[in-house]
Amino acid sequence: MAAPMLRGCCLARRGALACIDGGSRRGRGAAIGCRSSGKRGRSSVAQQSLITAQKSGKGEHAWAAVVGLEIHAQISSNSKLFSGSQVQFAAPPNSLVSFFDASLPGTLPVLNRRCVEAAVMTGLALKCHINKKSLFDRKHYFYADLPAGYQITQQRLPIAVNGSLEYSVCVGKKRSQVITRTARIKQIQLEQDSGKSLHDELRSQTLIDLNRAGVGLLEVVLEPDMSCGEEAATAVRELQLILQALGTSQANMAEGQLRVDANISVHHPGEPLGVRTEVKNLNSARFLARAIDSEIERQINELENGREILNETRSFDCKLGCTIPMRDKEGKQDYRFMPEPNLPPLLLYDTASLPPGADPQQVINIDRIREQLPELPSETREQLVQQYGMLPEHSFTILNEVGLLEFFQNVIKETRAEPKKVTSWILNNFLGFLKQQNLAVNESPVTPSALAELLNLLDRKAISSSAAKQVCIIKCLHVLFFY
Amino acid sequence: MWARAVRFGLRSWVAWRRGFTSKADPQGNGRVSAQVIEHLERLALVDFGSQEAVARLEKAIAFADRLRAVDTGGVEPMESVLEDRCLYLRSDNVVEGNCAEELLQNAHRVVEEYFVAPPGNISLPKQDEQEPFSYN
Which long-range contacts (CB under 8 A, 24 or more apart) does A204-207 make? Predict the structure, then answer.
């Protein structure tokens, strides 16, 4: 199946994506699951910051939309946040569940060191202030996939606060101008994931699998600094790349490792912010931008027709292409936050404050983690621009396409052709062929070596450009006919 | 175990109340209104069941309210009695799990190694549908 891809910025490419309902959070109605395997859809209309009301003709006031995001990323670790059961996608139901995960009486949470390190690393990469003391709380609500009746989270004092996420949007007529935007990060907190509910409408029952219950999550809260679906989708893509580069999360949306909730409101510029709605369970990169834009449109529509926006929770129905309210009979939730009585405060140290003679297994040194931060996507892109003289927007495409960076680097290694030619060929021709055949980079029938050789031939002028293109096409078609 | 949970919940709830005009006790006479009791029952799924239980709640709140007599200006609140303890950090190894059969024995209904639950939350019936007992 094609790897999930997001329309990052310029050279807008569309690709097939799997949209699977992996999320199971509180307050939802019927599970919405959609599969869109193998189809290339239309992307959402490129939104600009100010959306002019066109349809109704009542008042040509411009509307401004405000989008904030709450992103849950599953921490890449061997065991769960507070117990020693395994973290693994797709295992026999309830086989990765310990007594604590099942919330049997007499069990206690024991914090996983790797999860704390992952949180600190992510906080540092996102330029956050790391709280040397953070606290755990209980967030109470009832749902079948939350056996304890509460989730352990960090509401009062999370592990990291006040960071920023830079992302770039392509503007201008040919989308060739790259503008950097920043979304402020309110906080990053550690919390438990819930189990999974499988709704069996036929027999009017829900099947519960607790394999996912207790898996460590990083919740990244982005301030409402984004103004449309595209900006939000780009920010999410950038966060995905950062998490993958750090190794703190595989951030694969198809496997439910990255889930996004959006807070959306609209207002006239200069006036106070409008009532916001929450759109939950945006589990597909493809539908993220569409869902947000459709909600913005809906809100504008409602307000222009004299109606009010309810502060409610909605979900995106990809078949209908719009958001629908979730069945939420209980109205505004009261989570009764209270301190987690079984966990002392989490204390972190730096080199200056490290207690002498402390057990290295029992202390976490923020400075050490900072020293070990790997190269971040922004640095990689900068490197590509410097080393290979490519345009910034090309470096974005290379990083945004899953597997393309590695492919590109392998070709460069083996070919004698100029880097600029390689870049141009890969972005203009190679990527185009893949898209036509709906293939991901790692499914490419043309290997880096083969492409390198092809480019060598081109370079020596042994073959023409059109001949080279034909070879690629034949190779791609070969896959279609014989596999 | 439930009683402990309710007590903990109450204490923090009381602490929250301190800074605000009490919605539960607008006359300041120490009585907790029927509305609040119903809200608590819905949130915590605790059945107060009798006037005696409500009286016990009111006494507990009055007891905790005596903290107001102490001047805590400039004092950092204690969030946890464990605040001087070290939070133990476990190595990231898989040491548990693989006991589906044992866990499923606890379940009332099981379908192919899944726990079975009703299709959604079943709301607590409204007050007039419940076993009637007068709050005041």
Answer: A204/B118, A204/B119, A205/B111, A205/B116, A205/B117, A205/B118, A205/B119, A206/A144, A206/B116, A206/B117, A206/B118, A206/B119, A206/B120, A207/A93, A207/B111, A207/B114, A207/B115, A207/B116, A207/B117
Q: What is the pLDDT of residue A451?
A: 86
pLDDT at residue B20 tops 50 = no
| Residues in B touching A144 (Cβ below 8 Å) | 115, 117-118
Q: Are A249 and A73 in contact (CB under 8 A)?
A: yes
Alpha-carbon distances, residue A387 vs A409, A427, A441, B110 (angstroms): 12, 17, 23, 60
Scan for tokens 């009979």, then name that residue: A329
Reported as a single tens digit per residue, the pLDDT across A334-368 is 899 999 999 999 999 999 999 988 899 999 999 99
Least confident segment among A14-28, A121-135, A144-158, A195-209: A14-28
Mark yes or no for CB contact A79/B94 under 8 Å.
yes
Find the CB nearest B92 among A77, A334, A345. A77
* Contact assignment for B87 to A346 by CB distance below 8 Å: yes
Cross-chain Cβ contact B80/A344 below 8 Å = yes
Least confidently predicted of A96-100, A328-332, A458-462: A328-332
Terminal Cα distance for chain A, rounded: 14
Buried residues in A441-471 as b, exposed as e (16+ CB within 10 A): beebbbebebbbebbeebeeeeeeeeebbeb
CB distance A339–B117 less than 8 Å?
A: no
CA distance B79 to chain A (A): 7
A110–B42 CB contact, under 8 Å: no
Contacts of B17 in chain A (CB under 8 A): none
Question: Is A79 within 8 Å of B117 when comparing Cβ atoms?
Answer: no
Who's near A152: CB < 8 A, 6+ residues apart? A81, A82, A109, A136, A137, A138, A139, A191, A192, A340, A343
Distance from CA of B45 to the nearest CA of A (A): 9
| Segment among A78-82, A218-222, A410-414 with least mean pLDDT | A410-414
ipTM higher than the 0.85 cut: no
* Residue A429 DSSP code: I
Q: Is the pLDDT of residue B23 over 60?
A: no
How far apart are alpha carbons A315 and A418 in whole angstroms?
A: 49
Q: CB of A122 within 8 A of CB of A332?
A: no
Facing B93 at nearest CB: one of A79, A94, A201: A79
Which tokens go with A414? 């083996």
Structure tokens at B115: 């726990």
Contact A452, A463 (CB under 8 A): no
> Could you tell me how many residues make up chain A?
483
CA distance to A213, A310, A327, A405, B33, per residue, from A330 (Å):
24, 15, 9, 48, 20
List CB contacts (< 8 A) between B12 and chain A. Answer: 336-339
